[in-house]
Every structure is written in structure tokens, then in C-alpha cells.
């Protein structure tokens, strides 16, 4: 009889742990998913806002119109290391928590961002100065970056 009551108590404990643990784990994952989505959305929004406020696109369009006429050096202050960004890099392992469509859009945005940053770094780093027509090469690079952005 004592062994039977221990078995019932053990089964009750296991059922209780499962019944309370599953909803708790589901809620925890839900909150993690919301947190990851919120911080990534904030970083993306901030990056887009900086581009808009600083008129970055207009500046590169103006630079493009100058390069169509003559070669000019690209100032080094435009150079940005081609990194994804601190929020994305700290949360990359959590992308799997997001719904597939959202994770796809986030990864696509950061891939475009990395591409644009690499174009800018190449421009400011003088990569195109050694080619036969540096102005044309720089202009083509800016056009590709603008299309990507």
C-alpha cells in the first residue's frame, strides 16, 4: 500500500510538472520572441531613420552626378565597417524564435545593409583608384549600392 501511494504521488508530481511546465515554457518562448522582434525592429528603424535624417541617399546621388563628369576622391568619413550591427549580432542565435517570414525579412535587410556598407568601404578605401576609369567604376558601384538600398 505504501509503495502504491508513493507511485501515485510520483505520477501526480510528474503530471503536475508537465501541466504547469509546458504553458510556462510556451509563455517564456513567446516573451523571448517578442523581445527579439522588438530589439531588431528598433535597430532597423534607427538605421533607416539615420539614413533619412542625414540625407545619405541624396548625398550619394549628388556624388553620382559629379562622378558622371569627373573623378573625385570619396572622403574617408563615409567608410563604415561592413558589420551587421550590435543588436543583430547579439541576437543572431535567436532568429529561429521568430516566425519564418519575419526572420527572412530581417536577414534580408541585414544582408542588404552589409552589401551597402561594403560598397561604401570600397569607395572610401580607394579600391577603384587603380582601374582605368575610376570615376566610371565609382559611379557604377554607387548605382549598385543605391539599387540595393
Molecular structure report:
By secondary structure, this protein is mainly α. It has one domain. It is built from five helices and no strands. The protein has helices spanning 2-53, 56-67, 86-91, 100-124, 134-148.
List the main descriptive attributes of the protein structure presented here.
149 residues; mainly alpha; 5 helices; 0% strand
Helix and strand topology:
Elements: H1 2-53, H2 56-67, H3 86-91, H4 100-124, H5 134-148
Helix pairs in contact: 2-5, 4-5
Give a quick rundown of the structure.
The chain is an all-alpha fold and 149 residues long. 74% of the residues lie in helices and 0% in strands.
Average pLDDT confidence is 83
| N-to-C order of helices and strands | HHHHH
How many beta strands in the DSSP annotation?
Answer: 0
Helix amount: over 70%
Discrete helix count: 5
What is the molecular shape? rod-shaped
- What's the alpha carbon Rg, rounded to whole Å? 26 Å
Major β-sheet profile: none
Structural class: mainly alpha
Proportion of residues in extended strands: under 5%
Low-confidence stretches: none
Distance between the termini: 74 Å
Count of spatially separate domains: 1
Amino acid at each position: 500500500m505504501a509503495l502504491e501511494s508513493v507511485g501515485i504521488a510520483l505520477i501526480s508530481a510528474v503530471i503536475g510538472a508537465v501541466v504547469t511546465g509546458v504553458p510556462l515554457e510556451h509563455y517564456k518562448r513567446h516573451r523571448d520572441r517578442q523581445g527579439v522582434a522588438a530589439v531588431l525592429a528598433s535597430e532597423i528603424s534607427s538605421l533607416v531613420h539615420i539614413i533619412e535624417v542625414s540625407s545619405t541617399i541624396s548625398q550619394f546621388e549628388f556624388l553620382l552626378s559629379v562622378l558622371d563628369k569627373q573623378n573625385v576622391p570619396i572622403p574617408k568619413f563615409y567608410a563604415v565597417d561592413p558589420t551587421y550591427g550590435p543588436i543583430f549580432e547579439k541576437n543572431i542565435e535567436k532568429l529561429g524564435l521568430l516566425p519564418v517570414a519575419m526572420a527572412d525579412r530581417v536577414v534580408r535587410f541585414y544582408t542588404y545593409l552589409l552589401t551597402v556598407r561594403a560598397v561604401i568601404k570600397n569607395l572610401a578605401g580607394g579600391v577603384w583608384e587603380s582601374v582605368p576609369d575610376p570615376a566610371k567604376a565609382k559611379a557604377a558601384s554607387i548605382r549598385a549600392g543605391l539599387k540595393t538600398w
